C-alpha cells in the first residue's frame, strides 16, 4: 500500500520571532500518525506572500497532504487566504453559509457583526468550507491535482477541534492509508552510542517494515519502534515480540514504555513496598523533590525533603559530622552518604536520596571542577554512592543530577525487591 505523506506548515511572524511556541505541528504529527498518514516535513514561514507561495509550491512536489495553520484572521496582516487564491489562481468570494455562521456566532454573544468580521466568510472559490464551531476563522479543504490542502486557524484549541471532529473523518474517507504503530522503550543510565552497540545485532535483524529511532534526552534514551503495514493488531503483536527479543540485552536500563515517566515508575515501586522517600539536596536546590511532587498522590510515598545548601544545615538538620566536612568537603562521597542516611533517619523515611556537587558556573577547583557531583541512596540495609562528572552548564547539571539520583533510587528499589 502506498504511504500517504503529509507536510505541516505554520504561518505567522510571531512564531519566527519566538513570541509564541508552535505546538500545532507536534499535535498534528501525532494525530496524523494515528490514522496512518506520515508527516515527512514541518516548517514555519512568516506573514510574507512570496515565502508562503514558495513553500506551497515545494510541498506540492513532495507530499499528498499539505496542512497550513495560521494567518486566517480578518485583519490586514493575515494574508493566508489571499495568498492561497494567488497560488490556485482563483478569487475570494463571500460564502453564504460561512456568513450565516459568523453572523450567528456574534449574535449569540449579543454583538453586532461588522464588515471586518464578515470578511471571515470571504473564501477562495475552489475550497470546501469547513465550519469552525469554536471560532470565526473557518477551515478550508482544497483538492487540486490529486493533492489535498487544508488551511486551519492557528489558535490551537480551534485547530484541534476542527481536525478531530471534521477533518480527520474526511481524511480517513479520502485516503486509503496504511497502519502505523509505534512502541517506545524508555531507557535511563546508558548513553546513546553504548545502547546502539549493545543492540546492534538485534537492530540489524529487524524486518524491513519495522524501523528503529534513537531519541536521546537528559541521561535518557527512548527507542522508538515504528511498524507499517495493513493490520494494526498484527503490527502491535510484532512490535511486542521485538521488545521481548531486545529486553534481555538492556533490561537493567529499561524503566518503562510509551508515555511512562521515570518519577511515576519510582512511585509504583515505592507504593508496592509501602515505603516513604525523603530527599536531601545541595546542588540541585530542591529540583529532585519538585520532580517527585509534580504528580498527584505523591504524599503517599514522599515524606519531605531538606535543601541543605549550607554546611550548617547539613550538620544541624541532616546530622553530617563536622569532621566529615572538614576532612573531605561538602562535595564528597563521605558527605553525600551521611546526607542520605541523615535525611532518611531524621524524617522517618524508608529510603533517602542525596545530592551534593559543584553545579557551576563558578565554585570549581582543580580537584573538584564544575560538574563534579556526588549522589547517594540510603536504606536500612545499604547506602550506595555514585560520582558523576558533567560539564560547566548549571541548569543542565541540575537536571542531569536529578535523573541520575532518581535512577539510583530506582535501581536500589529493584535490588531490594529481588532480595
TrEMBL record:
<dbReference type="InterPro" id="IPR008135">
    <property type="entry name" value="Competence-induced_CinA"/>
</dbReference>
<dbReference type="InterPro" id="IPR050101">
    <property type="entry name" value="CinA"/>
</dbReference>
<comment type="similarity">
    <text>Belongs to the CinA family.</text>
</comment>
<dbReference type="InterPro" id="IPR036653">
    <property type="entry name" value="CinA-like_C"/>
</dbReference>
<dbReference type="Pfam" id="PF00994">
    <property type="entry name" value="MoCF_biosynth"/>
</dbReference>
<dbReference type="InterPro" id="IPR036425">
    <property type="entry name" value="MoaB/Mog-like_dom_sf"/>
</dbReference>
<dbReference type="InterPro" id="IPR041424">
    <property type="entry name" value="CinA_KH"/>
</dbReference>
<dbReference type="InterPro" id="IPR001453">
    <property type="entry name" value="MoaB/Mog_dom"/>
</dbReference>
<protein>
    <recommendedName>
        <fullName>CinA-like protein</fullName>
    </recommendedName>
</protein>
<dbReference type="Pfam" id="PF18146">
    <property type="entry name" value="CinA_KH"/>
</dbReference>
<dbReference type="Pfam" id="PF02464">
    <property type="entry name" value="CinA"/>
</dbReference>
<dbReference type="InterPro" id="IPR008136">
    <property type="entry name" value="CinA_C"/>
</dbReference>
<feature type="domain" description="MoaB/Mog">
    <location>
        <begin position="7"/>
        <end position="174"/>
    </location>
</feature>
